[in-house]
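TA notes, week 10

Several of you asked for a full example with nothing omitted. So below is the full record: structure tokens for the whole chain, then the designed sequence directly under it. When grading your own attempts, check the secondary structure regions first.
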């Protein structure tokens, strides 16, 4: 293995020498934006010592599936700007809707006021949501959409005189965001373990692997034993995204929904990543005809334009909170930018385009194309597995396939592959050693081929075979 490089970073604010990983490929520039980024910023989910040693990609503009950086380099947005972009950047109709809304107002509070874009969007969401969902509670991001569902479920049982139902059951390797409530129902050891003592305790069921047919894990056993104390079950439908694009066995979601009904436990489905077409249907739950008690959406809701999230729930849940003020049944939760008018306008324009552009048809066609263009990689000596649900795919790398030995984390193989995509005109962000391919849903056939070719070549280059 190459030895780490010692490198001096001029104005990184770290006082001098720094050990950096061998993934560093670019010289440090004298560009003031780059210096200030390294001097003043702290990037999310980023080891800053690596960041400080690399040339940051400073994105200046974007159009369609393409990003353009300050040096004029054109890169395909291969992960939809972290799984959010739907119709590409600078989509004329969404730009226009945001501008039109801006000419009226950018934001007013939703605590005590209301406005047309949020009202119309709620009506549209209920129209397209699975049957039974009747109410929309807005927030700003995926974590808060889940947080809201958790708190609503918790309070609901108190209002129904079942105060002992305070626990949640979630799945191992699940990911629901980074606020403490959503971390409490998360199960990705790398992200969540460190915060263990801060979190509320619940139950965790094993996530079943499709490789074992008929295996639906132990959710039933957990519910049978503990249902009297459980307020709700929380899960990602069809595919666990952030833990590395891990597929659930077909039928698992419907199985979980049946169990929840049988054991009197509410079902929270987190469609933050899968919602709005990503897996080939508007919502992933529709593929197993599931209507959850709470549906959490965010990311692609606004087409990837502005922060917006929603927690959809049933009338029965909403009604339980109904009463005189001095009964104190109110749901005391809300965020300052809840239902931001610009974001709602973007979301309405985004949803209008789904039908007009027949987007779901494109997702299904491009999903088949993606599967066939990635298929040759399954024989690659350093590809352990390719997992895909619609336009949501992960390619897991492995050092020794025969022996099942993973790459050492310090090798940063996932990052190396993504780095090798850059000169090929594609930007990707891996999940450890899983290469994530999640392009904007409106990507064309030729653009997708450009992307898959870059990925195949980059894997060959970075793994040396
Ligand atoms: N839930 C799921 C399934 C996600 O994939 C994510 C983010 O990737 C979140 C929740 C958190 O969303 P946000 O980053 O907007 O808080």
């Amino acid at each position: 293995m190459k030895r780490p490089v010692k490198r001096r970073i001029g104005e990184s604010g770290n006082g001098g020498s720094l050990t950096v990983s061998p993934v560093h490929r670019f010289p440090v520039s004298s560009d003031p934006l780059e210096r200030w980024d390294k001097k003043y910023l702290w990037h999310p989910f980023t080891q800053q010592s690596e960041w400080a040693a690399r040339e940051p990609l400073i994105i200046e503009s974007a159009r369609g599936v393409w990003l353009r950086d300050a040096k004029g380099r054109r890169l395909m947005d291969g992960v939809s700007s972290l799984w959010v972009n739907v119709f590409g950047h600078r989509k004329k109709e969404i730009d226009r809707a945001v501008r039109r809304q801006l000419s009226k107002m950018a934001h007013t509070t939703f605590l005590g006021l209301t406005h047309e874009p949020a009202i119309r969007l709620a009506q549209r969401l209920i129209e397209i949501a699975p049957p039974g969902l009747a109410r929309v509670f807005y927030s700003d991001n995926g974590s808060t959409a889940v947080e809201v569902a958790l708190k609503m479920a918790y309070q609901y049982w108190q209002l129904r005189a079942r105060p002992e139902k305070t626990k949640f059951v979630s799945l191992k390797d699940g990911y629901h965001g980074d606020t403490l409530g959503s971390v409490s129902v998360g199960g990705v050891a790398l992200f969540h373990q460190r915060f263990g003592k801060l979190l509320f305790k619940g139950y965790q069921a094993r996530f079943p692997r499709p490789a074992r047919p008929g295996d639906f894990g132990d959710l039933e056993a957990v519910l049978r034993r503990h249902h009297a104390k459980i307020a709700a079950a929380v899960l990602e439908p069809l595919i666990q995204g952030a833990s590395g694009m891990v597929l659930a066995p077909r039928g698992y979601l419907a199985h979980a929904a049946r169990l929840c009904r049988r054991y009197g436990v509410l079902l929270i489905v987190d469609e933050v990543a899968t919602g709005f077409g990503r897996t080939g249907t508007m919502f992933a739950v529709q593929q197993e005809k599931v209507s959850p008690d709470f549906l959490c959406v965010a990311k692609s809701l606004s087409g990837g334009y502005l922060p917006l999230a929603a927690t959809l729930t049933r009338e029965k849940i909403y009604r339980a909170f109904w009463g005189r003020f001095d009964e104190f049944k109110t749901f005391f939760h809300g965020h300052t930018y809840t239902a931001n008018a610009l974001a709602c306008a973007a979301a309405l324009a985004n949803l209008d385009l789904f039908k007009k552009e027949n987007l779901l048809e494109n997702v299904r066609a491009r999903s088949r194309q993606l599967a066939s263009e990635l298929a040759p990689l399954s024989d690659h000596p350093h590809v352990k597995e390719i997992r895909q649900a619609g336009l949501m795919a992960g390619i897991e790398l492995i050092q020794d396939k025969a022996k099942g030995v993973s790459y050492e984390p310090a090798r940063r193989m996932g990052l190396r592959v993504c780095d090798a995509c850059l000169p090929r005109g594609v930007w990707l962000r891996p999940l450890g050693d899983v290469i994530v391919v999640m392009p904007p849903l409106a990507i064309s056939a030729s653009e997708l081929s450009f992307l898959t070719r870059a990925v195949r070549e980059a894997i060959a280059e970075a793994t040396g075979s």
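The two ends are 17 Å apart (CA to CA). Use that as a sanity check on your answer.
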